[in-house]
Amino acid sequence: MKKTTHKGKRSPRKPTPLHGDHPNRETASAASAPGSLAVPRRTFLAGAAGALGLAAVSACDWPAFFQQNFRRLTPGEIDETVARLQAQYRQRYGRDFQVDTEGPIDGTLFAYALDIQRCIGCRKCVYACVEENNLTRDPQIQYIRVLRFQDGTMDLEKSELYYHPDRVPEEGYYYMPVQCQQCANPPCVKVCPVQATWQEPDGIVVVDYNWCIGCRYCMAACPYMGRWFNWTDPVLPEDRVNTRTHYLGNRPRFRNVVEKCTFCIQRVRKGRYPACVEACPVGARKFGNLLDPASEIQWILRNKRVFRLKDELNTQPKFYYFFAT
Amino acid sequence: MEKTGFIPGTARRLVQGPPVYYAWVGLLLLLVTAGLGAYVRQLQHGMVVTGLTSYVPWGLYIGNFTFLVGVAAAAVLLIIPAYIYDFGPIKEIVVVAEALAVSALTMVLLFVTVDLGRPDRFWHLIPGWGILNLPSSLLGWDIVVVNGYLALNVLIPTYLLYKAYRMQEPNRRFILPFILLSIPWAVSIHTVTAFIYNGLAARPFWNASILAPRFLASAFCSGPALIVIVYQIVRRYTRFHVSDRALFKITEFICWAMAVNLFLLGAEFFKELYSDTHHLAPLTYLYAGLHGKDALVPWIRTALAFNIAAFLIFLVPRTRKNFVTLNLGCVLIIVGIWIEKGMGLIIPGFVPAPLGEVWEYAPTGTEVLVTLGIWGGGILLFTLLMKIIIPIETGEVTRGSPASPPATVCAVSPGTGPEGEPLLGG
Amino acid sequence: MTGSGPTRRIVLLLATLTAAAGLLSARAQPSGEPPDPGPGPARVFQAPAAGDAAEFPVPMKPLPKTITPCRACHGPEKDFQINWTREEGLRVHTHIRLNHGGNKVWCLDCHSPLERNYLRPLSDGRLIPFEQSHELCGKCHGTKYRDWRHGIHGKRTGNWNGDKTYALCTQCHDPHSPRFRPIQPLPPPAKPRWPQETAHHP
Q: What pLDDT score was predicted for residue A52?
């Protein structure tokens, strides 16, 4: 049976379940029942299925689904993405979020130094980071892990993460916080199958949360427990969200993607210290621009004895530990 | 011989069969449905329904993925004698191994998919549209080689079977390059899978040169063992003929592969125990427990016992050629390698964690159901493929005239078999 | 002169007035400015206009309200004698617990004995005012002082490439008992939700 299609032409006598359905099928069946308003069953079912499918499909967030990797987006697309995210956050958290997308400052390469002589293990840095970076409280993610060692050893297997004495520092122990080391030769970047994580020119290793497929290969590759996975939807206390965020940093994340410390990219790209640096009560944390000869970091590297964790793995961390004495 | 349209005929054959067939398919469909339901639950709640944590981010799914890549790669063990050495008994039956490889590869892809946090973002892996991080990412390479091997294993048997169905001579010049390509490719899929783990300096248990050879050795044990069992089932329930000589030759391969596997295990033990560095910790965790955590110890010791027992069974000709002990050996090997290469490889890689903690892993019910569902689906696929392939292979189903016997590379000609015994069917 | 009653009274009154004037003038100084040298021979130490001092303005620490110009009570012409050797049991300043350097350091190692409104002088004789007490700390704690000048010792907040705020020694350390007391740590991390087990060693 030869059918001629007239796109868009509809029989006015019949209700059309789906826009664009073959009108001639209806006219053909209408011809068989002139004057009747009944829709042939096959047509109705096809139309209903199509309508349901279309409804389901249009309920999906198609711009989110088709969003490209952040590095491929044009400035206009970035603005659209930010607007979409802000709408999402407004709906979810009831607050207006600022989602920056600024790039690195020219001539910067960030590095961090931690005075292992000074750290008292108070964990103020841990919780400052949790607040600043909108880390989920339950399940809990903490970028900074403070390890306690007994004097005389730096054997990680003999370290203790869950110490909870009345007072710190404790006699006979010392403390070493560990977080993402922002390696210059990062194994996590090497292994990501979709390049959802990469190293920015200012040295920060970032994750595009909207591109990550959640395979967790990078977590297997990281030697420092620097990367964490959202096994379910993150839970933030509604009254304590930090609304000053960066797209590649502390904007609220979603389930099933990987996240990590970004040296507080939302702060350092505006010239401020990371939250952990400012929180440390004894000033054990130092941060600066490796390319600036007058920076604190450079002074430390020139004048203090520094070491890096697991140097033999050649990850070239930009997180130094030093002894100030 | 039936002369009927291919699709309707095949469809009919798929839904018709003896009662045991219905029971079998019914059971598999039940598993698939349960698995699907569990996976929907995983999609709804997030991966928190699994037993995975940020300390052990890979578990049951990736363990099965690793094991099944080995099974798929083992098909090459039959391709080489069949096509390169023209070894008659195996040449006749290699297509079943290829179908097994197809089922295994389908399961591999399914396991990777259910392990992804965001499977809806699968398109990020497609080069051009998304980004496939080659040559840097081994997971990227794995996707390329696994899909390529799947394509090869679909192309080659389909072409040969099609020619058999049409009762035509296959064009060797066309198909032989693909067959030859599939041999190094089979080795490569499992090597790439090994390299996924091997390249991670953060995980000293995997960061050992011995990993890729061990992978291949254990794959060449488990895959052929599965094939041996499958062949016995196929020849029991169909007119497909599999000679004992072929089966015994395969078990010889298994024996040597297991010898290599055990030797490499011994080498691993020596290196870690003698050097006695921190890198001994994962091996200690696996075989003896570490700091009181020893959930895997009974499993791996069982696996080791199974492997050694199976090796001895296959070593001694009397037990190798006795079908009771042969099948026992096959089952022991499959279970032993599944433990050793599945959970026994993945979990110790994460223990101790990079900062020294020891956290274990146990799969949840959801994970187990999804795993069973995928296994059910893979076995179901294999069953259906057999339902299509075997009748073509035995010459029951052709599209040509009955007068001209099929003269194909791997179909069995009616008449006498290679050992002179009369064949059924025809 | 032989004191007749009224003359002595006038002299006493004048002395009292002078003292009161000195007292008031000292108290009237707004915090942040160097104190009036007052009667006395010392030249006040002025912090050199070093580069970093100009770039990173240091918030001056206001002196505690309890502190009085020490000259009000101490000085050669006053009643109290100068104890040149350590004497246990500081008579008046009983609220100060001295726990600095054990038995190697005591009050007059930091406070100038002759000019109690100032701290000990630098090697060229210039006395150190309380507001620049870090110069005094640096005499013994040279490495820490050098580290502090470069921002390594002590906390800095603000901008890594701009204005920073940092603290003077006495803003964090009590100069009489400088060692920090241990504090209560914040809670440890939660253990992985699965499996529910204790940490890896007792």
A: 67
Does A95 fall in a domain? no
Q: For residue A126, what is the nearest residue in chain C, using CA coordinates?
A: C186
Asked if the Cβ–Cβ distance from C182 to A169 is below 8 Å, we say yes
In sequence order, what are the residues at sequence separation of 6 or more whose Cβ sits closer than 8 angstroms to the Cβ of residue A85?
A97, A99, A247, A251
Which residue is it, tokens 């063992």? Answer: B225
Q: Is B415 domain-assigned?
A: no
Q: What span, in angstroms and rounded, lies between the C-alpha atoms of A221 and B203?
A: 7
Helix (H, G, I), strand (E, B) or coil at A83: helix
- Boundaries of domain holding A150: 110-323
Question: Does residue B408 fall inside a structural domain?
Answer: no
Chains with ≥3 CB–CB distances under 8 Å to C:
A, B
Reported confidence tier of residue C17, pLDDT bands at 50, 70, 90: low
CA distances from B81 to B78, B85, B91, B362, C120 (A): 6, 5, 7, 41, 95
* Most trustworthy range by pLDDT among A25-29, A254-258, C100-104: A254-258
The DSSP line for B70-136 is HHHHTTHHHHIIIIIS--HHHHTTHHHHHHHHHHHHHHHHHHHHHH-S-GGGGGGGSBTTB---TTT
Number of domains in chain B: 1
Q: Return the structure tokens found at C15.
A: 């002395």
Q: Give the pair of three-digit tokens for residue C98.
A: 């001295």
- What is the share, in percent, of chain C residues with pLDDT greater than 70? 55
- Which residues span the domain enclosing B255? 10-393
Contacts of B238 (CB under 8 A, 6+ apart): B386, B390, B391, B394
Query: Which residues on neighbouring strands pair with residue C156, listed in sequence order?
Result: C166
Cβ of C184 within 8 Å of Cβ of A166? The answer is yes
Instruction: Please name the residues between 136 and 195 in chain C that touch chain A, using a CB distance below 8 Å.
Output: 143, 147, 150-162, 180-191, 193
Number of domains in chain A: 1
Report ipTM (2 d.p.).
Answer: 0.88
Taking residue B240's Cβ as centre, other Cβ atoms within 10 Å add up to 24
What is the enclosing helix (H) or strand (E) of A149?
A: strand A145-150
Structure tokens at B254: 């298994």
Separation between Cα atoms, residue C137 and residue C127, nearest integer Å: 13
Residue B403 has pLDDT above 50, yes or no: no
Answer whether A140 sits within 8 Å of C156, measured CB to CB. no
Residue B344 and residue B214: Cα distance in Å, rounded?
13
Is residue B403 a part of any domain in this protein?
no
Q: Flag if B356 and C200 touch (Cβ within 8 Å).
A: yes
How many angstroms separate the CA atoms of A77 and A101, rounded? 12
Q: Is the pLDDT of residue A5 over 50?
A: no
Instruction: Count the neighbouring beta carbons within 10 Å of the beta carbon of residue A50.
Output: 15
- Closest residue to C195, CB basis, from B291, B357, B360: B360
Joined together, the tokens standing for residue A265 give 């990219």
